[in-house]
Write a structure and sequence with these properties.
Elements (H helix, E strand, L loop, with lengths): L2 H14 L1 H39 L3 E4 L3 E4 L2 E4 L6 H10 L3 E16 L2 E10 L3 H8 L2 E3 L14 E4 L4 H5 L4 E4 L1 H8 L8 E4 L2 E9 L2 E3 L2 H6 L6 E5 H7 L8 E6 L3 H8 L4
Parallel strand pairs: 5-12, 8-10
Antiparallel strand pairs: 1-13, 2-3, 4-5, 4-9, 4-13, 6-11, 7-10, 8-12, 9-10
Length: about 270
């Protein structure tokens, strides 16, 4: 049978069995569409997971003191991590390129007769640059494909400098909600607030914030009452005894992390 005869017979069969042809075609379309949809969903989920892992930082190692439960309360187990431990790490640990240090807690902020209980973040000077690099917590106006720097987080004023961290300067940066509660329509920058009965000068106010992961915005409030102070000021002025410091170490070669986990000794 020639190709022309085969084609003629096929077209005749299609014309005589229109319903069967339609159902067959419909089945093929639905099958192909289903495969494409499943692949698209799988790739989308993989991209989301990859993005979440990148936000954690593949070159970061988080170091914190070990805790245990004692009579229903979380208490420190073992030695504290001190501020000096973090400062010395860059010079004494070959893998570490730079470090982020922080302490946290709850404090009361007072301005005249207005009192606010807020979350304290004692941090180092490049905190906002670290936020900008991770792009997990961003200003509310930020578009996903934009370029972000630490300065983009500041709505009014400025962030504290490395010199102010070293000098234990009594300065603070307020979150958007905290500034609105304490000052209303007044200008906060340059004003004085009392944090746990210690005098601090407001040098900056953050923009309203959001998480890049929309689901996290539903679970956590990115605009909670927040005050950020130099970590040295937090330790020296706002704690009765030196707290344990959280350390994030940024390594020069993330591929060597696994090597050191397997072979911890030279």
């Amino acid at each position: 049978m020639h190709i022309a005869d085969m084609l003629s017979t096929s077209l005749k069969g299609v014309a005589e069995n229109g319903l069967r042809t339609f159902l067959t075609t419909l089945g093929i379309i639905i099958g192909v569409a289903s495969v494409i949809s499943v692949l698209a969903l799988g790739n989308g989920a993989r991209v989301k997971v990859d993005r979440q892992f990148r936000s954690l930082g593949s070159d970061e190692v988080n170091i914190s003191a070990r805790n245990k439960i004692d009579d229903g309360e979380t208490v420190l187990f073992g030695e504290k991590l001190s501020y000096s431990d973090g400062l010395e790490m860059v010079d004494n640990v070959p893998l570490v390129d730079r470090i982020d240090l922080s302490v946290g807690g709850s404090v009361k902020i007072r301005r005249e007769r207005i009192l606010l209980e807020a979350s304290l973040n004692g941090a180092i000077a490049h905190l906002l640059a670290t936020w900008a690099s991770a792009k997990e917590l961003v200003p509310s106006y930020f578009m996903d494909d934009g370029i972000l720097s630490g300065r983009d987080y500041i709505e009014y004023g400025r962030f504290f400098s490395p010199f102010e961290v070293a000098a234990c300067a009594p300065v603070c940066v307020l979150g958007n909600v905290a500034a609105e509660f304490l000052f209303g329509g007044d200008e906060p920058v340059g004003q004085t607030v009392w944090i746990s009965r210690q005098r601090f000068q407001v040098i900056g106010v953050l923009y309203e914030m959001k998480y890049t992961d929309s689901e996290k915005n539903l679970r956590r409030n990115p605009n909670k009452d927040l005050v950020i102070v130099p970590i040295s000021s937090a330790i020296g002025l706002l704690f009765h005894e030196e707290p344990s410091v959280s350390i994030t170490a940024h390594v020069t070669d993330e591929g060597r992390i696994l090597h050191y986990l397997i072979y911890p000794f030279p």
